Amino acid sequence: MYQYNSESDDDAEFDMHNIDVPEDLEEDEVSSDEENSSENDEENDIAGVSTENESDLENVDNNSTTDEERLSDDDLDQSQNIQYSVHELIQRIRACVSNVRGIRAVNDYDIRKARSNDPPIKSNLVTDFEIRWNTTFIMIGRFVIYRSIIDDINSRPFKIAHITSTQQLKLGSKEFEFNNDEWNRINDLDTVLKPFLIATKIISAKNYPTLSTTYSVQYCLRHFLSESSENDSIWLKRFKVCLREKFQLYFA
To answer: Looking at residue 131, what is its pLDDT?
Structure first.
């Protein structure tokens, strides 16, 4: 079990600065018109200063609100970009696996390469059920294992016998070409989803889980999404932030 100390957003307190208000001026009895005129001038000066202060405070409040809105919009855009990139990446993985498995000659070539690998790859590429996220994790995990074979098929489709030129062009297309950054993101997806798969297995065991077990699992997942290391990519950190926001929404 992870042990750590953290402060939640709800515990954060903001210091409020009191605004200095001028003390009420006592009105003295004035017998001459000059003294009355002097007091009126002072009151006008004070009113002018007060108006300027209020105007400055309003400007500060408006600027603060604008900054908060800008930060909120930036966070929202960032979250949407992460979700879009994840969706697009999974769609491409799903299409690539379906294409490899859909052509018998390519599937046989894929299996032979896997068995001759050192060490041999015993598992096969699989497609997922979109309504079951744990199968998506399995698909991604297998895809990571087959990285060298996928790259080989994409870069040299003409080496595969008994396929048409159209099939060769499709296998060698940019759609099924994954660069280093994309492979790193696929690895990050595998890294992030794995604890959720373990958590699902723990709370879905034959023996019904207790509330303490469920709480412990939730605690560990929250800690996992909150921690980061120097080796984590920027994309991985942002992806964790995106997941943490959803986690807070349902388990706050």
So the answer is: 79
Q: Are 225 and 244 in contact (CB under 8 A)?
A: yes
Outline where 103-227 has alpha helix (H). 104-115, 133-145, 147-155, 165-171, 180-203, 211-226
The single-letter code of the amino acid at 24 is D
**Residue type for 112, please?**
R
Q: What is the pLDDT of residues 77-126, one digit of tens each?
A: 777 888 899 999 999 999 999 999 999 999 999 999 999 999 999 999 99
Alpha carbon distances (Å) from 118 to 25, 145, 150, 180, 194? 91, 12, 16, 22, 25
Please tell me the distance from the alpha carbon of residue 59 to that of residue 19, in angstroms, as a whole number. 15
Per the document, the length of the chain is 252
The model's pTM: 0.67
Name the token pair of 110.
């894929």
What does DSSP assign to residue 118?
S
Res. 133: pLDDT tops 90 = no
Residues 125, 139: Cα–Cα separation, whole Å: 7
Q: How far apart are CA 7 and CA 11, in angstroms?
A: 7
Q: What backbone torsions phi and psi does residue 202 show, to the nearest 5 degrees?
A: -65, -45
Which has more confidence, 75 or 239? 239
- CA 229 to CA 70: how far, in whole Å? 28
Residue 32: phi and psi, rounded to 5, are -115, 155
Helices 234-251 + 33-102 axis angle, to 10: 110
